[in-house]
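Weekly puzzle thread! Below is a chain. First person to post its structure in token form gets bragging rights.
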Amino acid sequence: MASNITSFIKNVQDIMRYDAGVNGDAQRIEQLSWLLFLKVYDIREEAWEIDDDDYESIIPEKYQWRNWAMDSQDGKALTGAEIIQFVDNNLIPTLANLPINENTPVRQAIIPEIFSDVNNYMKDGVQLRKLINRVNALDLTDDNTTHDFNNIYETILKDLQSQRSSGEFYTPRALTDFISEQIKPKLGESIADLACGTGGFLISALKILSPQVENVEDQKKYIKSVHGIEKKAFPYLLAITNLLLHGIDEPDIIHGNSLTKNINEYTEEEKFDVIMMNPPFGGVEQESVQNNFPQDLKSSETADLFMVLIMSRLKHDGRAGVILPDGFLFSTDGAKQKIKRKLLEEFNLHTIVRLPNDVFQPYTGIHTNILFFDKSKPTDDVWFYRMDMPNGYKHFSKTHPIELKHFEKLTLWMNNPKEIKVDDNHKAIKVSKKDIEKNDYSLDFAGFSEKEVKILSPEEEMNQFEEANNDLSQKIAQQLENIKKELGDIK
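Winning reply:
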């Protein structure tokens, strides 16, 4: 199955490379994603029509996927200039401007929300018809729907990561699964990611919740369990699509910025039992956003503000798993120190896991950590655990990413934490709150040895070189495309 999915992705990207209107992988991926969304939404609508005799689509009949995208090979399917004109002048504007109000169900209101930011980059109608036919050939209706789509989805995300903006990248699925397994969400709890991206943490939570569903009432709790907020249009589209494929027919994903509301205005109903997330790193927020936070906790750095927001929106006895960079943990200056003091005084920060330095490679080498805490009591002690690279790995890469099996030793340790020393360095250590205070709230414990080097096999070295060479070739091709486009504009 994996090879079929890889073949599908390569095939559709090759189709789009023949279209001069599509410039680079980011646009190719976006083009594919909104077409996949329409196909997935049509599948869900067919199910809703069966379950509810009174169901009426918000999409006018002419613009439903089943009525314009299908090709019966009878020569009547839209193609060439006709399909370009239909998509650009009719389909996208119609979907973007569908009338909605406060009574419109979420599953229908998401259509204009999504299509207000959708672009058709393709200019060659013959290639667009080929792409639509290839998407239509996907069978997403059987029992393997979720599995199949997730393979496509994961491949899309791997390509998408190379198109990341500053401070933004997508969390490896093994990491979201591990954190979910440690947090152990329960059916009936509210679970949130306040910068959910494409929904990785929410999907990992649903995997934990799904086996807990035993009856109709459980199913109602399941479909209302996850909540997300995403600022950017494209990840928002992918998150909605992914949740629809996981049976969440009313996806509670808000298209907006979590940081634009004053944190003192949140009510108890707007707080969550579980928050799992990987806040954007390195971003800088404007003064207007900073003013939504208390003066002593105000910071221009996005990750700092998200930590304050998480603490503000966690219910009593709520649990959190948050990925943060070394800069937050080790700094003893300004807002970071005050935020950490608040965390220790008002929350139980029980475990910090130092992740291997290149978990997010090859997309970023930023050093990251997982903070596990809850709102049950103030912190007494914090366990620190250093997760080393697996044997035989020098670093993770596109072809050798981090996998859930790499967390097995850590999982065993978390079930029975104890002090561990390796070559006179602490791999795991318990540190008291008082000692952290004496350290000016720097959380620099169980660090990595600078001597640690793992040797790759010749085959892995060759794969690593090939990846680097392919990445460089892609970047050169992208630059050439940009230059050709600029020259064309000049003419």
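Puzzle host: Confirmed. Bonus trivia for everyone else. Residues 458-490 form the longest helix (33 residues).
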